[in-house]
Amino acid sequence: MEKTKQRGNVPVSKKTKKKSKTKSRSRNNIGVKLIEKPEYYDYNLVAAIILLTCFGLVMLYSTSAYTSTIKYGDDMYFFKKQAAISFICIAGALFISMFDYHILARFTGVLYGVAAGSMVLVRTPLGTVSNGARRWLRIGPIQFQPAEIAKIAVIVCLSYMIVHMGKKMNSLKACMTLGAMGTFLALLAYVCTDNLSTAIIIFCITVGMIFVAHPKTRIFLILVAVAIAFLAILVFVIGQSVKETDDFRLNRIIAWLHPENATGTAAYQTIQALYAIGSGGFLGRGLGNSIQKLGSVPEAQNDMIFSIICEELGIVGGVILLLLFGYLLYRLCFIAQNAPDLFGSLIVSGIFIHIALQVILNIAVVVNLMPNTGVTLPFISYGGTSIMFLMAEMGLALSVSKQIKLKTPERAA
Protein backbone atom coordinates (compact mmCIF):
# COMPACT_ATOMS: atom_id res chain seq x y z
CA MET A 1 0.00 0.00 0.00
CA GLU A 2 1.38 3.37 -0.96
CA LYS A 3 2.44 5.61 1.96
CA THR A 4 0.55 8.85 2.36
CA LYS A 5 1.26 12.09 4.20
CA GLN A 6 -1.53 13.98 5.98
CA ARG A 7 -2.02 17.61 4.89
CA GLY A 8 -4.94 19.22 6.65
CA ASN A 9 -7.85 16.83 6.21
CA VAL A 10 -6.68 15.43 2.87
CA PRO A 11 -4.19 12.52 2.58
CA VAL A 12 -1.52 13.19 -0.02
CA SER A 13 0.57 10.48 -1.62
CA LYS A 14 4.31 10.91 -2.24
CA LYS A 15 3.73 10.67 -5.98
CA THR A 16 1.39 13.66 -5.98
CA LYS A 17 3.28 15.66 -3.32
CA LYS A 18 5.27 17.74 -5.82
CA LYS A 19 2.25 18.38 -8.01
CA SER A 20 0.02 19.38 -5.10
CA LYS A 21 2.65 21.85 -3.85
CA THR A 22 2.40 23.69 -7.13
CA LYS A 23 -1.37 23.75 -7.01
CA SER A 24 -1.51 24.97 -3.41
CA ARG A 25 -0.22 28.33 -4.49
CA SER A 26 -3.49 29.07 -6.21
CA ARG A 27 -6.00 26.63 -4.67
CA ASN A 28 -6.82 25.90 -1.03
CA ASN A 29 -8.21 22.70 0.54
CA ILE A 30 -11.85 23.47 -0.17
CA GLY A 31 -11.36 24.10 -3.85
CA VAL A 32 -11.22 27.92 -3.75
CA LYS A 33 -8.82 29.45 -6.22
CA LEU A 34 -6.91 32.55 -5.07
CA ILE A 35 -6.48 35.17 -7.77
CA GLU A 36 -3.70 37.68 -7.12
CA LYS A 37 -4.53 41.19 -8.28
CA PRO A 38 -1.54 42.65 -10.10
CA GLU A 39 -2.07 46.19 -8.81
CA TYR A 40 -3.99 47.92 -6.03
CA TYR A 41 -4.60 51.60 -5.37
CA ASP A 42 -6.37 52.93 -2.29
CA TYR A 43 -9.02 55.17 -3.82
CA ASN A 44 -10.80 55.16 -0.46
CA LEU A 45 -7.87 57.04 1.04
CA VAL A 46 -7.99 59.53 -1.85
CA ALA A 47 -11.71 60.04 -1.18
CA ALA A 48 -11.05 60.61 2.54
CA ILE A 49 -8.36 63.19 1.73
CA ILE A 50 -10.63 65.07 -0.69
CA LEU A 51 -13.58 65.02 1.74
CA LEU A 52 -11.48 66.35 4.61
CA THR A 53 -9.96 69.03 2.37
CA CYS A 54 -13.34 70.19 1.07
CA PHE A 55 -14.84 70.17 4.57
CA GLY A 56 -11.87 72.20 5.77
CA LEU A 57 -12.22 74.74 2.97
CA VAL A 58 -15.93 75.27 3.68
CA MET A 59 -15.25 75.80 7.39
CA LEU A 60 -12.20 77.96 6.67
CA TYR A 61 -14.29 80.35 4.57
CA SER A 62 -17.03 80.46 7.18
CA THR A 63 -14.50 81.06 9.97
CA SER A 64 -12.26 83.59 8.25
CA ALA A 65 -14.65 85.64 6.06
CA TYR A 66 -15.16 88.39 8.65
CA THR A 67 -11.49 88.63 9.66
CA SER A 68 -10.19 88.64 6.09
CA THR A 69 -12.70 91.36 5.15
CA ILE A 70 -11.52 93.56 8.01
CA LYS A 71 -7.80 92.95 7.36
CA TYR A 72 -7.61 92.62 3.59
CA GLY A 73 -10.94 93.86 2.22
CA ASP A 74 -11.62 90.47 0.68
CA ASP A 75 -13.79 87.90 2.44
CA MET A 76 -12.18 85.10 0.40
CA TYR A 77 -8.55 86.08 1.03
CA PHE A 78 -7.70 83.07 3.23
CA PHE A 79 -10.03 80.74 1.32
CA LYS A 80 -8.50 81.43 -2.11
CA LYS A 81 -4.95 80.91 -0.90
CA GLN A 82 -5.83 77.70 0.95
CA ALA A 83 -7.95 76.33 -1.91
CA ALA A 84 -5.19 76.92 -4.46
CA ILE A 85 -2.45 75.30 -2.38
CA SER A 86 -4.77 72.42 -1.34
CA PHE A 87 -5.71 71.32 -4.86
CA ILE A 88 -2.18 71.78 -6.16
CA CYS A 89 -0.93 69.61 -3.29
CA ILE A 90 -3.59 66.94 -3.89
CA ALA A 91 -2.36 66.73 -7.49
CA GLY A 92 1.19 66.58 -6.10
CA ALA A 93 0.22 63.73 -3.77
CA LEU A 94 -1.22 61.74 -6.68
CA PHE A 95 1.96 62.45 -8.66
CA ILE A 96 4.19 61.28 -5.77
CA SER A 97 2.11 58.10 -5.49
CA MET A 98 3.17 57.08 -9.01
CA PHE A 99 6.78 56.66 -7.86
CA ASP A 100 8.23 53.66 -6.04
CA TYR A 101 8.66 54.64 -2.39
CA HIS A 102 11.81 52.47 -2.19
CA ILE A 103 13.63 55.33 -3.93
CA LEU A 104 13.61 57.11 -0.56
CA ALA A 105 15.95 54.46 0.87
CA ARG A 106 18.78 55.94 -1.20
CA PHE A 107 18.25 59.45 0.17
CA THR A 108 17.56 58.92 3.86
CA GLY A 109 20.84 60.55 4.90
CA VAL A 110 20.24 63.50 2.57
CA LEU A 111 16.67 63.94 3.85
CA TYR A 112 17.83 63.86 7.47
CA GLY A 113 20.61 66.37 6.71
CA VAL A 114 18.23 68.72 4.86
CA ALA A 115 15.77 68.63 7.76
CA ALA A 116 18.46 69.39 10.34
CA GLY A 117 20.25 71.98 8.19
CA SER A 118 17.09 73.87 7.23
CA MET A 119 16.11 74.26 10.91
CA VAL A 120 19.58 75.65 11.69
CA LEU A 121 19.18 78.14 8.82
CA VAL A 122 16.17 79.64 10.60
CA ARG A 123 18.68 81.36 12.92
CA THR A 124 20.42 82.97 9.94
CA PRO A 125 19.22 86.00 7.89
CA LEU A 126 17.21 83.51 5.78
CA GLY A 127 14.89 82.99 8.73
CA THR A 128 11.79 85.19 8.95
CA VAL A 129 9.52 86.23 11.83
CA SER A 130 5.74 85.83 11.64
CA ASN A 131 3.25 86.42 14.47
CA GLY A 132 6.15 87.06 16.83
CA ALA A 133 7.85 83.70 16.18
CA ARG A 134 10.98 83.00 14.13
CA ARG A 135 10.02 79.64 12.63
CA TRP A 136 9.93 80.25 8.89
CA LEU A 137 12.61 80.00 6.24
CA ARG A 138 12.43 82.20 3.14
CA ILE A 139 14.24 81.15 -0.02
CA GLY A 140 13.30 83.53 -2.83
CA PRO A 141 9.50 83.67 -3.12
CA ILE A 142 9.08 80.45 -1.11
CA GLN A 143 8.42 80.58 2.64
CA PHE A 144 7.95 77.44 4.73
CA GLN A 145 8.48 75.95 8.18
CA PRO A 146 11.50 73.58 8.05
CA ALA A 147 10.26 71.79 11.17
CA GLU A 148 7.59 70.21 8.95
CA ILE A 149 10.35 68.57 6.88
CA ALA A 150 11.69 67.05 10.10
CA LYS A 151 8.41 65.16 10.64
CA ILE A 152 8.75 63.40 7.28
CA ALA A 153 12.51 62.92 7.79
CA VAL A 154 12.10 61.16 11.13
CA ILE A 155 9.43 58.84 9.67
CA VAL A 156 11.47 57.82 6.61
CA CYS A 157 14.89 57.65 8.28
CA LEU A 158 13.75 55.61 11.28
CA SER A 159 11.85 53.23 8.97
CA TYR A 160 15.04 52.65 6.96
CA MET A 161 17.14 52.14 10.09
CA ILE A 162 14.67 49.71 11.66
CA VAL A 163 14.61 47.58 8.50
CA HIS A 164 18.41 47.35 8.43
CA MET A 165 18.65 46.62 12.15
CA GLY A 166 16.49 43.53 11.76
CA LYS A 167 16.66 41.30 14.84
CA LYS A 168 18.96 43.79 16.56
CA MET A 169 15.81 45.81 17.34
CA ASN A 170 15.54 43.64 20.47
CA SER A 171 18.64 45.31 21.93
CA LEU A 172 18.73 48.42 24.09
CA LYS A 173 21.49 49.85 21.88
CA ALA A 174 19.22 49.81 18.82
CA CYS A 175 16.40 51.56 20.68
CA MET A 176 18.81 54.16 22.06
CA THR A 177 20.24 54.82 18.59
CA LEU A 178 16.80 55.32 17.06
CA GLY A 179 15.74 57.44 20.01
CA ALA A 180 18.82 59.64 19.68
CA MET A 181 18.21 60.19 15.94
CA GLY A 182 14.63 61.33 16.51
CA THR A 183 15.37 63.30 19.68
CA PHE A 184 18.13 65.25 17.91
CA LEU A 185 15.63 66.55 15.33
CA ALA A 186 13.15 67.31 18.11
CA LEU A 187 15.78 69.34 19.98
CA LEU A 188 16.67 71.26 16.83
CA ALA A 189 12.98 72.06 16.31
CA TYR A 190 12.80 73.43 19.86
CA VAL A 191 16.14 75.25 19.97
CA CYS A 192 16.32 76.64 16.42
CA THR A 193 12.65 77.34 15.72
CA ASP A 194 11.40 77.72 19.32
CA ASN A 195 8.56 75.34 18.44
CA LEU A 196 7.86 73.13 21.44
CA SER A 197 4.69 71.58 19.99
CA THR A 198 6.49 70.35 16.85
CA ALA A 199 9.37 69.08 18.98
CA ILE A 200 6.90 67.07 21.07
CA ILE A 201 5.29 65.64 17.92
CA ILE A 202 8.67 64.61 16.44
CA PHE A 203 9.68 62.98 19.73
CA CYS A 204 6.33 61.15 20.02
CA ILE A 205 6.62 59.89 16.42
CA THR A 206 10.05 58.52 17.32
CA VAL A 207 8.75 56.72 20.40
CA GLY A 208 5.72 55.43 18.49
CA MET A 209 7.80 53.95 15.69
CA ILE A 210 10.16 52.24 18.13
CA PHE A 211 7.08 50.84 19.90
CA VAL A 212 5.65 49.51 16.62
CA ALA A 213 8.92 47.83 15.64
CA HIS A 214 9.94 46.47 19.05
CA PRO A 215 8.67 42.98 19.90
CA LYS A 216 8.15 43.72 23.61
CA THR A 217 5.25 45.85 24.83
CA ARG A 218 5.51 45.76 28.62
CA ILE A 219 8.60 47.96 28.87
CA PHE A 220 6.89 50.71 26.84
CA LEU A 221 3.77 50.59 28.99
CA ILE A 222 5.94 50.96 32.09
CA LEU A 223 7.83 53.91 30.58
CA VAL A 224 4.57 55.62 29.55
CA ALA A 225 3.14 55.14 33.05
CA VAL A 226 6.31 56.61 34.61
CA ALA A 227 6.25 59.57 32.17
CA ILE A 228 2.59 60.31 32.91
CA ALA A 229 3.21 60.14 36.65
CA PHE A 230 6.22 62.46 36.34
CA LEU A 231 4.27 64.99 34.26
CA ALA A 232 1.34 64.89 36.68
CA ILE A 233 3.66 65.62 39.62
CA LEU A 234 5.41 68.39 37.68
CA VAL A 235 2.11 70.05 36.74
CA PHE A 236 0.87 69.77 40.34
CA VAL A 237 4.04 71.41 41.67
CA ILE A 238 3.80 74.22 39.10
CA GLY A 239 0.13 74.79 39.93
CA GLN A 240 0.83 74.97 43.66
CA SER A 241 4.07 76.94 43.70
CA VAL A 242 3.98 79.26 40.66
CA LYS A 243 1.50 82.13 40.77
CA GLU A 244 3.07 84.77 38.55
CA THR A 245 5.79 84.35 35.96
CA ASP A 246 7.05 85.98 32.78
CA ASP A 247 7.48 82.60 31.06
CA PHE A 248 4.59 82.24 28.61
CA ARG A 249 4.72 78.42 28.70
CA LEU A 250 4.34 78.33 32.48
CA ASN A 251 1.52 80.87 32.16
CA ARG A 252 -0.23 78.50 29.76
CA ILE A 253 -0.01 75.65 32.28
CA ILE A 254 -1.36 77.87 35.06
CA ALA A 255 -4.14 79.11 32.78
CA TRP A 256 -4.99 75.51 31.88
CA LEU A 257 -5.26 74.49 35.53
CA HIS A 258 -7.29 77.55 36.57
CA PRO A 259 -8.67 79.27 33.45
CA GLU A 260 -11.28 81.16 35.45
CA ASN A 261 -8.58 82.86 37.55
CA ALA A 262 -6.09 83.52 34.75
CA THR A 263 -5.30 87.12 33.88
CA GLY A 264 -4.06 88.60 30.63
CA THR A 265 -4.15 86.63 27.39
CA ALA A 266 -2.91 83.25 28.70
CA ALA A 267 -6.37 81.68 28.99
CA TYR A 268 -8.37 84.08 26.82
CA GLN A 269 -8.26 82.01 23.63
CA THR A 270 -9.16 78.78 25.41
CA ILE A 271 -12.05 80.35 27.34
CA GLN A 272 -13.49 81.88 24.18
CA ALA A 273 -13.17 78.52 22.40
CA LEU A 274 -15.11 76.85 25.23
CA TYR A 275 -17.80 79.54 24.95
CA ALA A 276 -18.06 78.74 21.23
CA ILE A 277 -18.42 75.01 21.83
CA GLY A 278 -20.96 75.54 24.62
CA SER A 279 -23.10 77.95 22.61
CA GLY A 280 -23.20 75.55 19.65
CA GLY A 281 -25.03 72.88 21.60
CA PHE A 282 -26.01 69.65 19.89
CA LEU A 283 -26.95 70.91 16.41
CA GLY A 284 -25.10 74.24 16.33
CA ARG A 285 -26.10 77.77 15.37
CA GLY A 286 -25.95 76.99 11.66
CA LEU A 287 -23.22 77.29 9.06
CA GLY A 288 -21.90 80.87 8.96
CA ASN A 289 -23.70 81.97 12.15
CA SER A 290 -20.82 81.82 14.62
CA ILE A 291 -20.50 84.76 16.99
CA GLN A 292 -17.10 83.91 18.49
CA LYS A 293 -15.38 84.11 15.10
CA LEU A 294 -16.13 87.85 14.98
CA GLY A 295 -12.91 88.62 16.81
CA SER A 296 -13.54 86.86 20.14
CA VAL A 297 -11.39 83.85 19.22
CA PRO A 298 -8.04 85.21 17.96
CA GLU A 299 -6.83 83.63 14.69
CA ALA A 300 -9.85 81.31 14.71
CA GLN A 301 -8.93 79.93 11.27
CA ASN A 302 -5.76 78.37 12.69
CA ASP A 303 -5.47 76.30 15.87
CA MET A 304 -8.99 76.97 17.21
CA ILE A 305 -11.02 76.23 14.10
CA PHE A 306 -12.53 73.13 15.74
CA SER A 307 -14.31 75.38 18.27
CA ILE A 308 -16.00 77.31 15.43
CA ILE A 309 -16.98 74.02 13.76
CA CYS A 310 -18.68 72.96 16.99
CA GLU A 311 -20.37 76.37 17.38
CA GLU A 312 -21.82 76.36 13.86
CA LEU A 313 -22.45 72.63 13.35
CA GLY A 314 -22.76 71.57 16.97
CA ILE A 315 -21.59 68.33 18.53
CA VAL A 316 -22.97 66.54 15.46
CA GLY A 317 -20.57 68.45 13.19
CA GLY A 318 -17.65 67.76 15.50
CA VAL A 319 -18.46 64.04 15.56
CA ILE A 320 -18.76 63.93 11.75
CA LEU A 321 -15.31 65.49 11.46
CA LEU A 322 -13.89 62.97 13.92
CA LEU A 323 -15.46 60.14 11.92
CA LEU A 324 -13.77 61.45 8.76
CA PHE A 325 -10.43 61.47 10.57
CA GLY A 326 -11.18 57.99 11.89
CA TYR A 327 -11.81 56.71 8.38
CA LEU A 328 -8.59 58.30 7.12
CA LEU A 329 -6.64 56.61 9.91
CA TYR A 330 -8.41 53.31 9.20
CA ARG A 331 -7.24 53.43 5.57
CA LEU A 332 -3.69 54.17 6.69
CA CYS A 333 -3.90 51.22 9.09
CA PHE A 334 -5.13 48.99 6.25
CA ILE A 335 -2.22 50.03 4.02
CA ALA A 336 0.32 49.52 6.82
CA GLN A 337 -1.00 46.01 7.52
CA ASN A 338 -0.98 44.98 3.85
CA ALA A 339 2.21 46.75 2.73
CA PRO A 340 4.49 44.59 0.57
CA ASP A 341 7.46 44.98 2.92
CA LEU A 342 8.49 46.25 6.35
CA PHE A 343 9.87 49.52 5.00
CA GLY A 344 6.52 50.50 3.50
CA SER A 345 4.61 49.32 6.55
CA LEU A 346 6.77 51.43 8.89
CA ILE A 347 6.48 54.54 6.71
CA VAL A 348 2.68 54.36 6.74
CA SER A 349 2.69 53.56 10.47
CA GLY A 350 4.73 56.71 11.08
CA ILE A 351 2.27 58.77 9.02
CA PHE A 352 -0.59 57.23 11.02
CA ILE A 353 1.10 58.22 14.30
CA HIS A 354 1.72 61.77 13.05
CA ILE A 355 -1.86 62.41 11.89
CA ALA A 356 -3.38 60.83 15.01
CA LEU A 357 -1.11 62.87 17.30
CA GLN A 358 -1.97 66.18 15.69
CA VAL A 359 -5.72 65.51 15.74
CA ILE A 360 -5.63 64.43 19.40
CA LEU A 361 -3.41 67.31 20.55
CA ASN A 362 -5.39 69.98 18.67
CA ILE A 363 -8.80 68.85 19.94
CA ALA A 364 -7.44 68.30 23.48
CA VAL A 365 -6.25 71.93 23.52
CA VAL A 366 -9.57 73.28 22.18
CA VAL A 367 -11.61 71.48 24.87
CA ASN A 368 -9.01 72.39 27.54
CA LEU A 369 -7.84 68.85 28.27
CA MET A 370 -4.23 70.08 28.00
CA PRO A 371 -2.35 73.41 27.86
CA ASN A 372 -2.35 75.41 24.65
CA THR A 373 0.39 74.08 22.35
CA GLY A 374 -0.30 75.70 18.98
CA VAL A 375 -0.86 72.45 17.05
CA THR A 376 -2.88 72.79 13.84
CA LEU A 377 -5.78 70.50 12.87
CA PRO A 378 -4.65 68.48 9.81
CA PHE A 379 -6.37 69.39 6.50
CA ILE A 380 -8.64 71.86 8.30
CA SER A 381 -6.55 74.67 9.82
CA TYR A 382 -5.21 77.45 7.61
CA GLY A 383 -1.57 77.06 6.60
CA GLY A 384 0.13 76.32 3.29
CA THR A 385 3.23 74.63 4.78
CA SER A 386 1.14 72.22 6.83
CA ILE A 387 -1.01 71.23 3.84
CA MET A 388 2.01 70.80 1.57
CA PHE A 389 3.84 68.35 3.80
CA LEU A 390 0.67 66.52 4.86
CA MET A 391 -0.11 65.87 1.21
CA ALA A 392 3.46 64.70 0.66
CA GLU A 393 2.86 62.11 3.40
CA MET A 394 -0.42 61.10 1.79
CA GLY A 395 1.44 60.65 -1.50
CA LEU A 396 3.89 58.29 0.23
CA ALA A 397 1.02 56.30 1.75
CA LEU A 398 -0.63 55.99 -1.67
CA SER A 399 2.70 54.93 -3.18
CA VAL A 400 2.86 52.09 -0.65
CA SER A 401 -0.76 51.13 -1.37
CA LYS A 402 0.02 50.96 -5.09
CA GLN A 403 2.34 48.00 -4.49
CA ILE A 404 -0.07 45.98 -2.37
CA LYS A 405 -0.90 42.59 -3.87
CA LEU A 406 -4.35 41.45 -2.77
CA LYS A 407 -5.59 37.89 -3.26
CA THR A 408 -9.28 37.44 -3.94
CA PRO A 409 -10.99 34.02 -3.67
CA GLU A 410 -12.72 32.52 -6.67
CA ARG A 411 -14.69 29.27 -6.58
CA ALA A 412 -12.94 26.58 -8.57
CA ALA A 413 -14.85 25.03 -11.45
Summarize it.
The radius of gyration is 25 Å and the shape is globular.
Blueprint (SSEs and pairs):
Blueprint lengths: L3 E4 L2 E4 H10 L8 E5 L6 H30 L4 H20 L11 H14 L5 E4 L2 E7 L2 E3 L1 H20 L6 H22 L2 H18 L4 H24 L6 H10 L10 H13 L24 H34 L3 H25 L17 H18 L5 E5 L2
Antiparallel strand pairs: 1-2, 3-7, 4-5, 5-6
Give your account of this protein's structure.
There is one protein chain. The protein has 413 residues and is mainly alpha-helical. 62% of the residues lie in helices and 8% in strands. It is built from 13 helices and 7 strands. The chain has helices at residues 14-23, 43-72, 77-96, 108-121, 146-165, 172-193, 196-213, 218-241, 248-257, 268-280, 305-338, 342-366, 384-401, and strands spanning 4-7, 10-13, 32-36, 127-130, 133-139, 142-144, 407-411. Strands 4-5-6 form a 3-stranded antiparallel sheet. Strands 1-2 form a two-stranded antiparallel sheet. A two-stranded antiparallel ribbon has the order 3-7. A hairpin with a 2-residue loop joins strand 1 (4-7) and strand 2. Helix 3 packs parallel to helix 13, helix 4 (108-121) runs antiparallel to helix 5 (146-165) and helix 10 (268-280) crosses helix 11. The longest helix has 34 residues, at 305-338. It is globular. Mean pLDDT is 83; it is low at 1-31.
